[in-house]
Automatic annotation (TrEMBL):
<comment type="similarity">
    <text>Belongs to the importin beta family.</text>
</comment>
<dbReference type="GO" id="GO:0005634">
    <property type="term" value="C:nucleus"/>
</dbReference>
<protein>
    <recommendedName>
        <fullName>Importin N-terminal domain-containing protein</fullName>
    </recommendedName>
</protein>
<dbReference type="GO" id="GO:0005737">
    <property type="term" value="C:cytoplasm"/>
</dbReference>
<dbReference type="InterPro" id="IPR011989">
    <property type="entry name" value="ARM-like"/>
</dbReference>
<keyword id="KW-0813">Transport</keyword>
<dbReference type="GO" id="GO:0006606">
    <property type="term" value="P:protein import into nucleus"/>
</dbReference>
<dbReference type="Pfam" id="PF24140">
    <property type="entry name" value="TPR_TNPO3_IPO13_3rd"/>
</dbReference>
<keyword id="KW-0539">Nucleus</keyword>
<keyword id="KW-0653">Protein transport</keyword>
<dbReference type="InterPro" id="IPR016024">
    <property type="entry name" value="ARM-type_fold"/>
</dbReference>
<dbReference type="InterPro" id="IPR051345">
    <property type="entry name" value="Importin_beta-like_NTR"/>
</dbReference>
<dbReference type="InterPro" id="IPR057942">
    <property type="entry name" value="TPR_TNPO3_IPO13_3rd"/>
</dbReference>
Length: 999
């Protein structure tokens, strides 16, 4: 082999092998290292591999010795089960002798740990039973030489533990931990491994004796390694011994000894991490008296350290806080139900309160507050689950009143902790610190939502009181934090009328007058959160119109402030939508304010769209309908200005400016249309004076109204210069759709011909064509509903254009999104417009073969969504029409199905035979079920498909007998939904070879 000028050949001697190993551990080109490693692996797999490793163990280089130990591991994994008993015992003695010798020579941890791993591999892979590996290795370490297993079996683990020196004990602890760790990865359900796991139930006796001795020794390293080994054994026991209490008890007997390490100042942090790990992952490992012991340690030793760390702002307090949290979560039932009788319960609650009272900001120097949320979430969840699982007639738990008092205190502590830092602190924060504080606030409000379930309006009153008190004292950061909490509770508060009077304390206060006074120095965040509250509580303000003047004045003043403009625009939109009927008298003022706003610095696409939509919502509430014309035209004038400016920019070849203004104008128009829709929750007044009399057209069908619609449609002229801009196309689609949802004539209920004309101006290269196709689909669907007007002429024109797109595409893979949109249009023809492609001699009927072939090829395409749409199209086409159809229509459809049935059957069988994806089977079943249930000739087609060369090219894993059985089952089910899907899945699996056979 050659690699960058370096020749690599198989080693011919031990010296050459040692040289190769050394080169392997030196920095160098990756290709050379790989070649060297390959040669060594080739050699170690040979019969001489044992001798190579044995000889290399004498090397003076640590890396060479590590490789030798690894060679034994590889050989044992490959050849271990094939060894005879004598050879296996020889290898066992060799491994132990090297471990003993190297330990006496002061070998480093890397090689010793690797040898421990190799001994574990021997334990697992050897054909001979190694009954007491820990004792055998331990006695050999103690005697200084490898002894036989029989000699070691007479020594008790307790006596051995006393005889070992600290370094030997550490090695034995490493071996013990490696055993538990590596055996835990073996599947206990296999016969070979189940024996290994049964043996571990005996080995744990020796392991526990060694660990008990390790915890008693004064040597710090021994106790530290003992803790690690203890955790490894506990982790092994959790999944393996849930029903082996005898084996588990050996480890539980160690808890008291291990817990004493929690008191040791030197190892306390390590011990805290290990006990926290077990508390979090294996709570049931601890029995009640163990929890009592840990509770005492918590109160006597952890609590003082944590309190001191909180006082000093010392980050070293984190492990203590984590232990408190883990203990509290593990014992949440006692903490909730016995806070006054359990000393540890009181300690846990008190410390978590202290954590939240401590100085610092979450996400910055205060990590404990973030962590504390986990405990409180568990606490509140337990309270809610217990209370709401009770029967209605049961009395509340005796502890509930105390829990409520705890949660009331918690709300105030969270509120205080959520106050934003002063600017001089926040400006020095990193992005991560800002994000950490933000996450804490969000986590805290999520927690408050859970608390609100328990406390209800008492909590609402508490927050309102905090707002008013902070407002009186001009503590704006405290006001903002309480408003932030109130905002998070909006949905819950508005569901219950009980909070109406309480909310009056906020909305009837001077709050919004003061934050609306921009001469006052108030943090922007406080104003921004006040704006959010108005957007969230629009339903409340709608019922209390007396609060509208202050709130609306504040929002429009905020709209002129750069930092607040976007937030204000969003809340203006929400508030005006909710309170539209109460704001009709202010419409003139709003229009004037909007005009003034447009010339200001905060007028941008987002704010313009939101505010113009807000004003449109108020216009919608005007009565009679004719009253809407003048203000609506005033809004349209602004859109027309944007459209005209966009055309002017385009004429000057400034396409960036044209796109910005043109898209903004269309988006504003779409927002007007959306907000002019009748709200779902507003009742229709059947006594409206403006309602047309029978036989008379409504207002929006009058000549005056048509003039408004002409102005709206005139805005589409911007597409003459922006026809290749995807955002403009998308915005135009939104304008059209805004009228589709209306059930009565209105300004945006445009003639269907407008959508048709829009589609006809597109080509397959038009950006966002899929959005235009989707708009056409919605139009067809709306005019297919019961009671709607049928539009066959317009639908026919749509289909002709879409068929032209299909012919231009040629294949669905050319553009899967457009292909799906095209097929979806034809899916929408069923049931009311399906006759259109079958009108003899029409242009659409001549395009039909191309459409049908396109959909068939789409089922075989690799693209998911066209495939699904095509399968839906054929399923709809095959099923009998559920409406009274025109003369001969069903016969025309039947002729098409007859012409294409065999081809469709072959495509479906090839997909179900393994060519398709398993996730698509349910979609492919739809046309298959339709064929079987409705077409007598389907059996012959499916049989021909199953036995065709086309199917054989997909799979040869199913026999002719299995194919016939599949066909017989399909035909017998007659399109039964669930059972057909089950049969298809089974056949698919057989064709793919993921089951042994089908049948």
């Amino acid at each position: 082999m050659e690699g960058n000028g370096t020749s690599v050949v198989p080693p011919q001697s031990i010296a050459e092998a040692e040289t190769l190993v050394k080169r392997l551990y030196q920095p160098g080109p990756a290709k050379v290292v790989a070649e060297i490693n390959d040669q060594l692996l080739q050699l170690q797999r040979s019969a001489e591999g044992w001798q190579l490793a044995d000889a290399l163990m004498s090397s003076s280089d640590q890396n060479v010795r590590f490789f030798a130990a690894n060679t034994f591991t590889v050989k044992l994994n490959n050849d271990g089960p094939k060894l005879d008993g004598d050879t296996a015992r020889t290898i066992q003695m060799r491994l132990i002798s090297w471990l003993v010798r190297l330990s006496r020579q002061g070998e480093g941890a890397m090689v010793i740990r690797k040898l421990c791993s190799t001994l574990t591999t021997y334990f697992v892979r050897s054909p001979t039973l190694w009954q007491r590996p820990l004792t055998h290795v331990g006695v050999s370490l103690q005697t200084g030489d490898s002894i036989t297993e029989d000699e070691a079996n007479d020594v008790s683990a307790e006596r051995l533990s006393k005889a070992l020196n600290p370094s030997e004990t550490v090695i034995l602890l490493w071996f013990s931990a490696t055993l538990a760790d590596e055996v835990s990865r073996l599947d206990g359900n296999t016969p070979a491994h189940s024996q290994v796991h049964r043996q571990m139930e005996e080995i744990v006796r020796d392991a526990s004796s060694i660990l008990a001795s390790a915890f008693r020794t004064p040597d710090l390293k021994v106790r530290a390694e003992g803790l690690k080994a203890f955790l490894t054994w506990v982790n092994y026991a959790q999944p393996m011994w849930p029903r082996r209490p005898e084996a588990l008890q050996h480890l539980r007997n160690l808890i008291e000894s291990a817990a004493q390490v929690l008191i040791d100042p030197t190892l306390q942090h390590d011990a805290l991490d290990i006990f926290r790990d077990i508390l979090e992952s294996y709570t049931s490992f601890f029995q009640p008296h163990h929890m009592q012991l840990l509770g005492r340690i918590l109160s006597e030793h952890v609590q003082p350290k944590l309190l001191q760390a909180l006082q000093d702002g010392d980050p070293e307090g984190l492990p203590y806080g984590q232990m408190v949290t883990a203990f509290g979560v593990a014992n949440v039932q006692d903490v909730v139900e016995q806070p006054e009788t359990s000393e540890s319960a009181g300690t846990v609650i008190g410390l978590h309160f202290d954590i939240l009272r401590a100085p610092g900001y979450p996400g910055d120097e205060d990590e404990l507050s973030v962590m504390s949320i986990e405990f409180w979430n568990t606490y509140v969840e337990y309270v809610n689950d217990t209370v709401f699982s009770q029967d209605a007639e049961e009395p509340p738990p005796s502890w509930l009143a105390y829990a409520k008092s705890i949660l009331t205190q918690l709300v105030e502590l969270l509120w205080a902790k959520m106050c934003t830092p002063p600017a001089n602190v926040a400006k020095n924060w990193t992005d991560d610190e800002h994000e950490g504080f933000k996450e804490f606030r969000l986590d805290s409000t999520d927690l408050m939502l859970s608390i609100f379930v328990v406390l209800g309006k008492d909590m609402l009153q508490q927050l309102v009181t905090l707002i008013i008190q902070s407002l009186d004292n001009k503590k704006w950061r405290a006001v903002e934090a309480a408003l932030f909490c109130l905002n998070a509770l909006a949905d819950n508060v508005l569901e219950d009328q009980a909070g109406e009077d309480i909310l009056a304390g906020v909305f009837g206060s001077t709050l919004f007058r003061e934050v609306g006074d921009f001469s006052q120095t108030i943090p922007s965040q406080a104003r921004r959160t006040a704006i959010d509250v108005l957007g969230s509580y629009g339903q409340y303000i709608e019922r209390h119109a007396e609060y509208l003047p202050d709130t609306v004045r504040f929002l429009f003043a905020s709209l002129e402030t750069g930092l607040l403009a976007n937030t204000a625009a969003k809340s203006i939109a929400a508030l005006c939508s909710a309170c539209r009927s109460s704001l009709t008298g202010e419409l003139g003022g709003f229009l004037r304010q909007y005009q003034a706003f447009l010339s200001g610095p905060t007028s941008d696409p987002y704010t313009k769209e939101k505010v113009i939509g807000a004003i449109a919502a108020i216009i919608q509430a005007l009565k009679p309908e004719s009253a809407k014309v003048a203000p609506l035209l005033a809004l349209l004038e602004n859109v027309e200005k944007d459209v005209q400016m966009a055309k002017s920019y385009a004429a000057e070849a400034d396409m960036d400016g044209a796109e910005t203004l043109g898209v903004m104008g269309l988006n504003c128009l779409a927002n007007i249309g959306k907000n002019l829709q009748q709200p779902e929750d507003v009742p229709i007044n059947i006594y409206d004076d403006d309602e047309q009399r029978p036989g008379q057209p409504g207002f929006w069908e009058s000549e005056q109204a048509k003039g408004v619609q002409q102005r709206i449609m005139g805005c589409f002229s911007v597409l003459e210069v922006l026809g290749n801009d995807g955002d403009a196309i998308e915005a135009a689609c939104q304008v059209l759709r805004s009228g589709f949802a209306e059930t009565e004539p209105g300004p945006f209920v445009l003639p269907a011909s407008i959508t048709v004309s829009f589609l006809q101006q597109c080509s397959v290269t038009t950006p966002r064509l899929e959005s235009v196709l989707s708009t056409a689909c919605i139009l067809i669907t709306q005019h297919s509903k019961s009671g709607s007007n049928r539009i066959p002429t317009e639908v026919n024109a749509i289909c002709e254009q879409v068929a032209a797109f299909i012919q231009q595409l040629g294949h669905s893979s050319q553009d899967p999104s457009i292909a799906q949109g095209c097929i979806d249009v034809f899916c929408r023809l069923v049931p009311y417009y399906i006759h259109l492609p079958f009108v003899h001699g029409s242009a659409l009927s001549q395009q039909l073969p191309a459409v049908l072939n396109f959909t068939l090829h789409a089922i075989e395409s690799p693209d998911i969504f066209p495939r699904r749409s095509a399968a839906e199209f054929w399923a709809k086409l095959i099923r009998p029409l559920s409406i009274e159809s025109q003369d001969g229509l069903q016969q025309s459809i039947a002729r098409v199905i007859t012409a294409y049935g065999l081809q469709l059957s072959l495509i479906l069988m090839r997909q179900i035979g393994g060519l398709g994806q398993r996730s698509e089977l349910d979609y492919l079943c739809e046309p298959l079920k339709a064929l079987v249930a409705n077409v007598p000739a389907a059996r012959g087609w499916l049989e021909a498909a199953l036995f065709s060369d086309g199917f054989a090219a997909v799979t040869d894993r199913v026999s002719d007998v299995e194919k016939r059985r599949f066909l017989q089952q399909l035909m017998g089910l007659r399109g039964d939904n669930r059972k057909t899907k089950d049969v298809v899945r089974e056949f698919y699996a057989a064709c793919r070879g993921t089951v042994v056979s089908y049948g």
